[in-house]
DNA sequence: TCTTTGACGCTTC
DNA sequence: CGAAGCGCCAAAG
């Protein structure tokens, strides 16, 4: 859980990443669902950039009618990310941290 | 205990 | 695209 949050805090503005990737970088391959839960239970006080986490299809994982959906879409747009029908082009906006960055920030 | 339920993901058809 | 199947696993009932 800690690691997951840690990874998320590292996501730079204007970039996004998928649940699955977060899980991978956190050392929990195949546990994307766990990441979503980690986000849900994350303390608001932590100021996590939760909106920068979307699913592997580049889509926002909320119902299109939900308030959360709208909110996330706005936050992303405020960072200069183009969101079409709740979807962003991972090709252009996916965050690809390099090894050094990860190793640097992750204790064994 | 067992079953259902997710802010998910990948492959197949 | 979209739907179906299967994998994954903590929580809640």
Automatic annotation (TrEMBL):
Query: Which InterPro entries does UniProt cross-reference here?
Result: ATL_DNA_repair, MethylDNA_cys_MeTrfase_DNA-bd, MethylDNA_cys_MeTrfase_DNAb, WH-like_DNA-bd_sf
| CDD domains xref list | ATase
Q: Which Pfam family, giving just one, matches this sequence?
A: DNA_binding_1
- Which Gene3D superfamilies would you find in this protein's record? Winged helix-like DNA-binding domain superfamily/Winged helix DNA-binding domain (1.10.10.10)
The UniProt keyword set, sorted, is: DNA damage, Methyltransferase, Transferase
Q: Does the keyword Metal-binding apply?
A: no
Gene Ontology MF terms in the entry? methylated-DNA-[protein]-cysteine S-methyltransferase activity
What EC number(s) does the entry state?
2.1.1.63
The Methylated-DNA-[protein]-cysteine S-methyltransferase DNA binding domain is annotated at 2-81
Superkingdom of this entry's organism?
A: Bacteria
Q: Which GO terms describe its biological process?
A: DNA repair; methylation
Q: What is this protein called?
A: Methylated-DNA--[protein]-cysteine S-methyltransferase
Q: Which organism is it from?
A: Shewanella salipaludis
């Amino acid at each position: 859980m800690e690691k997951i949050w840690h990874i998320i805090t590292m996501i730079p503005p204007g970039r996004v990443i998928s649940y699955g990737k977060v899980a991978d970088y956190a050392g929990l391959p195949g546990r994307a669902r766990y990441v979503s839960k980690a986000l849900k239970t994350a303390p608001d006080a932590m100021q996590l950039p939760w909106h920068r986490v979307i699913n592997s299809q580049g889509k926002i994982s909320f119902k299109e009618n939900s308030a959360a959906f709208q909110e996330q879409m706005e936050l992303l747009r405020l960072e200069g990310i183009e969101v079409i029908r709740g979807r962003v082009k991972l090709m252009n906006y996916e965050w690809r941290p390099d090894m050094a960055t990860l190793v640097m920030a992750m204790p064994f």
